[in-house]
């Protein structure tokens, strides 16, 4: 008998995670549950799952930027995005960073297992409530577009490191704490913050937070 497919779940809502665990365990092996994007990257490297189910709005590092990093190091890893976001930009960004499935949380009970089965077969799955045309738009991009373009889909004028700094600032982390999380100097963090504010033409931490929420870079609601 074949071993069950190994799944790693990333969701910072305990009740949601527990519900998904009960949903998956009859058919799949849930190897772990993590509550933030940085833990996801660390556990995926350690556990080597077949599939990652990831929420977009994760603390410390959002699900889409985390997914982009995962695909760099584990290109064969299958990613299914599980989210409340049905907007076109989120769907497009998810497939650009390498997701194979996109499931709305409101439909998780009836669609997640189906999505996993489809992804295992090498197919793409999208919640029926999300128009198929959005997927076509995302996956039929010109081959001349690079992975760098995909990484910049979120807050497109910012680099991946600037997005990381922006999210942590929006989550209320102090400069020293951000430096520790990213393993860089305080001066480097301050440099990035200055560049971000100049690039986005924002002047205060409150404005940065508002922008980060609108861009989906933070789990703050």
From TrEMBL:
CDD domains: LuxR_C_like, REC_NarL-like. Pfam families: GerE (PF00196), Response_reg (PF00072). SUPFAM superfamilies: C-terminal effector domain of the bipartite response regulators (SSF46894), CheY-like (SSF52172). The modification 4-aspartylphosphate is found at residue 55. The keyword Phosphoprotein applies. Residues 151-216 form the HTH luxR-type domain. Keywords: DNA-binding, Phosphoprotein, Transcription, Transcription regulation. InterPro entries: CheY-like_superfamily, NreC/VraR/RcsB-like_REC, Sig_transdc_resp-reg_C-effctor, Sig_transdc_resp-reg_receiver, Tscrpt_reg_LuxR_C, WalR-like. One of its GO terms (molecular function) is DNA binding. Residues 6-120 form the Response regulatory domain. It comes from the Bacteria. The keyword Iron-sulfur does not apply. GO terms for biological process: phosphorelay signal transduction system; regulation of DNA-templated transcription. This is Response regulator, LuxR family.
């Amino acid at each position: 008998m074949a071993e069950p497919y190994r799944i790693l779940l990333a969701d910072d809502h305990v009740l949601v995670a527990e519900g998904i665990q009960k949903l998956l365990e009859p058919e799949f092996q849930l190897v772990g549950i993590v509550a933030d994007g940085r833990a996801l990257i660390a556990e995926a490297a350690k556990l080597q799952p077949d599939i990652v189910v990831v929420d977009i709005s994760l603390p410390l590092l959002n699900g889409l930027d985390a997914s982009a990093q995962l695909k760099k190091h584990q290109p064969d890893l299958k990613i299914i995005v599980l989210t409340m976001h049905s907007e076109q930009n989120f769907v497009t960004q998810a497939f650009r960073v390498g997701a194979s499935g996109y499931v709305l949380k409101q439909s998780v009970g009836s669609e997640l297992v189906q999505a996993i089965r489809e992804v295992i077969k090498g197919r793409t799955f999208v919640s029926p409530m999300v128009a198929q045309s959005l997927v076509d738009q995302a996956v039929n991009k010109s081959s001349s577009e690079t992975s760098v373009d995909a990484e910049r889909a979120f807050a497109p004028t910012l680099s991946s490191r600037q997005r990381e700094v922006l999210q942590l600032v929006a989550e209320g982390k102090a400069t020293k704490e951000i430096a520790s999380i990213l393993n860089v100097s305080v001066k480097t963090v301050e440099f990035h913050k200055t560049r971000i504010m100049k690039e986005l033409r924002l002047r205060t931490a409150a404005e940065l937070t508002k922008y980060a929420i609108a861009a989906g870079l933070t789990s703050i609601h």
